[in-house]
Design goal:
11 helices, two-stranded antiparallel sheet, membrane, mainly alpha
Length: about 270
Amino acid sequence: MDIPMGEIAAFAVGLAASGVVAGLLAGLFGIGGGAIFVPVFYPVLGLLGVDEAVRMHVAVGSSLAIIVPTSLRSFRAHYERGAVDIALLRSFVVAVPAGVVLASLVAAHVSSGGLRAIFAGIATLVALRLVFGREHWRLGDTIPGNPVRSLVGAAIGFLSALMGVGGGVMNNTFMTLFGRPIHQAVATSSGVGVLISIPGLIGYVWAGWGAPGLPVASTGYVNWIAVILMIPITLLVAPFGVRIAHALDKRTLEKAFGVFMLMVAARFVWTLL
């Protein structure tokens, strides 16, 4: 790839900056940072000449790989504070990975345009919830048991794996709609990110195994250059996000993140036109 060193350096700086933001968001919202990584990776991979047919898949798969250590570190920090609902997390141990496996099967057959459309659609719904949602909204005072809980867990795993995100916003919404404190929801979401990212990494390696047009240093739809570059940054800053999460009213930040997600969704829609 004949790209000037100045442009490559600019890409690296952009990825590093996104890693700082994503790591903070991982701890702050329990989202794993994928909502930042995917929209950054997609255009960068395009500028580096990666085939359009696999570009979005690699962006999503690499994002899930990066989320593995980020979510583990975030979960540990929240767990040490005693904020995680371990009982709820255990009830998701089968359902969430099952949804991720199903998403991997879909990813193996869906086109790049289809994956972008899915990302844009889910991102729009998430953004609307962040911008217009209210903490006092309730569907009940107790989180429902099975089969509803398992179905919700599977849906969180499925939709998150298709987007390359850790499922934080979706799980936060689920828990707070049934009366759980936002800080407990955020802490538990970091554990949900672990349940999504590990099987998601394996699934996207399998889904893209032997696919033509993959960039150098890729195993399936996971590019290890991007992963190795981003992991140290996200690991370093994620605990700072956790500290902020336990000390800050996040409503303004939620609105800002919702607006960002709307902009990301609009950009992906534009690429489909």
